[in-house]
Write a structure and sequence with these properties.
Chains A, B: Has multiple catalytic activities. Apart from catalyzing the oxidation of (+)-tartrate to oxaloglycolate, also converts meso-tartrate to D-glycerate and catalyzes the oxidative decarboxylation of D-malate to pyruvate. Chains A, B: This is D-malate dehydrogenase [decarboxylating]. Chains A, B: Its cofactor is Mg(2+); Mn(2+); K(+). The structure is a homodimer. Chain A is an alpha/beta fold. Chain A folds into two domains: 1-106 and 261-356, Isopropylmalate Dehydrogenase (3-Layer(aba) Sandwich), CATH 3.40.718.10; 126-255, 3-Layer(aba) Sandwich (Isopropylmalate Dehydrogenase). Chain A is 40% helix and 21% strand. The first copy, chain A, is built from twelve helices and twelve strands. Chain A has a ten-stranded mixed beta sheet with strand order 2-1-3-12-11-4-5-10-8-9, sandwiched between helices. In chain A, helix 1 packs across helix 10 (296-309). Chains A and B meet through helix 4, strand 6, strand 7, helix 7 and helix 8 of A and helix 4, strand 6, strand 7, helix 7 and helix 8 of B. Strand 7 (153-161) of chain A pairs antiparallel with strand 7 of chain B, so a sheet runs across the interface. The complex binds 3-isopropylmalic acid (IPM) (2 copies).
Chain lengths: 356, 356
């Protein structure tokens, strides 16, 4: 087994945690007997932009298409490049042009992670957020009337296609069907967003009829965020549009202690294009350069990538090592009320991985 | 002092909690020496819709315009009328046609309310969500291409005007300036929603320059929801678009224990039209008819309405009575882990109000 992986650290703490993820990947290759061909790229970062005036080289598709997966850190450095420029010029372009229409994000309360919710134990919270990743509210369609005047009007279009909605729902229902609870929750806002969201509801109903064994319910996004805090044990698979999935997949990890440990997969399920793996957290300019970022999100991301590539045993071994490491207060970073540096926290996971 | 108030209970638990709010209003009128002329309306409910085929009579504007305020319960009964029909036919129409462009929602951890967040005490959480209430993501502009086919495409437009954005920002900055912390947080998503949201950011910057004494920051909505859970003590005034404000003003009250106690004001600050006061919670079909809904949200709403009308002492006395009542486990409803009925919980507030 031999995998070609593009490594794109990006900006801020992306540059600090990606190398730690790579160490785990390399240890896993050695222990489980597969080969990794890692191709390191500096593009996709605002440094690259400062030099070249674009986030990516013109031939980025040629460079990345032949890879088996993309191991991504985080992009964004608003002090020098506006976020919408850096993100639409990199991550959001990958998602769209590589048709990574599934954004899959586990939400799990891990042993050893102090939970911000009162009285919750590991095992109580364990679900997936399935986020549509290519259309919806993240459109680049729209514009401005009367720019710069008192009469200024700015319009942006949310676009949902049957193609786009049905395929993400199918993925989510399949996932729900494969799990013991077989329960799917749809995030909607059809009472207020009165054109696209009733359409979303209608497609959920239609798809649901093909999965009679999957129990389904729906909540408006406002009260759904409330339930994440009040009843997180209620969920199994939660499916949402691009924006709602984005919100829920930060909120979910926050409810389980920190977004610093949460991984995500941007998947092209058909395998026509490489899938992209990144932690849920961003480039975090406020703590960048200090060596205190939590590397666990990036390391768990490495596990998700290996699972996707078929290295299931290696993936499980990494997650088990994360659990072992997190039990030790000394290996927790600041976001987990610990004092470990990025390097120390990653060392602890590596030690647990080697020892298992 | 003499106030004309339209009373619209609406659907579900709206019909159960509005009478309790009215009891407090009447007690306050008697105690503080003002007169209330209450005009009860059955319209705005799905029962009315079943009979008339519309949510409101044709002359609703004539009926409501001369009032001093609207005391509203909750609308929605999806079993018989789709939510977007009932809401766009009532509440959302009031907000728009009465130009109630400010939706103001306090988030406060009350003594006696079990907090779902670990280790938080009353006093730790005390901020306002200021929500734009007339434009943005809640538009009725858009439509469907190729309906009913595989090629179906559904489009909905988010519309922001300088007029609409600037006036809500001005309200929020004024509010922040009037508070001791003088701190304004803007909810954005300019990294993903790349047309309207960068515009929002730009107007926040421009308005901020007129308030040099107000400290301002901004967070993307995804990480902002995480901070509501992890660092709720960080906020003072949080301003958001129609959708983001909607989400944050359910999530905030959930973080302080229950949305069952949270009030809200839909304000036309110029006073050209009546303002509308309603609890944050909805019609809650799942618990309707059982007499177990929490009346505190509606009662606190009564206090917000009186404050708006200038009856500040009466308003404060009601809030104080709520605090007293909530300290007693016996006067807490089920959402607060108590066993009190709607009526018992309201009785407790009334007793505290009378005794003070
Ligand atoms: C019922 C619904 C349309 C409404 C809204 O989204 O504005 C409600 O959630 C609210 O917050 O007042
Ligand atoms: C950086 C940003 C554009 C991105 C998104 O909103 O998709 C991020 O928040 C995420 O969740 O991956």
């Amino acid at each position: 087994r031999h995998y070609r992986i593009a490594v794109i650290p990006g900006d801020g703490i992306g540059k600090e945690v990606v190398p730690e993820g790579v160490r785990l990947l390399e240890a896993a290759a050695e222990k489980f007997g597969f080969r990794l061909d890692l191709q390191h790229h500096t593009f996709g970062s605002c440094d690259y932009y400062a030099e070249h005036g674009t986030m990516l080289p013109a031939n980025w598709k040629e460079l990345l298409t032949p890879t088996d997966a993309i191991f991504f850190g985080a992009v964004g450095w608003p002090a020098t490049v506006p976020d919408h420029v850096s993100l639409w010029g990199s991550l959001l372009q990958f998602r769209r042009e590589f048709d990574q229409y599934v954004n899959l994000r586990p939400v799990r309360l891990m042993p050893g992670v102090p939970c911000p919710l009162a009285g919750r134990e590991p095992g109580d919270i364990d679900f997936y957020v399935v986020r549509e990743n290519t259309e919806g509210e993240y459109s680049s369609v729209g514009g401005t009337m009367y720019p710069g005047t008192e009469r200024e009007i700015v319009i942006q279009e949310t676009v949902m296609s049957r193609h786009g909605v049905d395929r993400i729902l199918k993925f989510a229902f399949d996932l729900a069907q494969s799990r013991p609870k077989k329960h799917l929750t749809s995030a909607t806002k059809s009472n207020g967003i009165a054109i696209t969201m009733p359409y979303w509801d209608q497609r959920v109903e239609a798809m649901g009829e093909r999965y009679p064994d999957v129990r389904r319910d729906k909540y408006h996004i406002d009260i759904l965020t409330a339930h994440f805090v009040l009843n997180p044990d209620r969920f199994d698979v939660v499916v949402g549009s691009n924006l709602f999935g984005d919100i829920l997949s930060d909120l979910g990890p926050a409810c389980t202690g920190t977004i610093g440990i949460a991984p995500s997969a941007n998947i092209n399920p058909e395998g026509r294009f490489p899938s992209l793996f990144e932690p849920v957290h961003g480039s975090a300019p406020d703590i960048a350069g200090k060596g205190i970022a939590n590397p666990v999100g990036q390391i768990w991301t490495a596990a998700m990538m290996l699972e996707h590539l078929g290295e299931v045993d290696a993936a499980h071994a990494i997650v088990a090592a994360i659990e072992t490491a997190l039990r030790e207060p000394a290996s927790r970073t600041r976001d987990l009320k610990g004092t470990a540096t990025t390097r120390e926290a990653a060392d602890a996971v590596l030690r647990a991985f080697a020892a298992a």
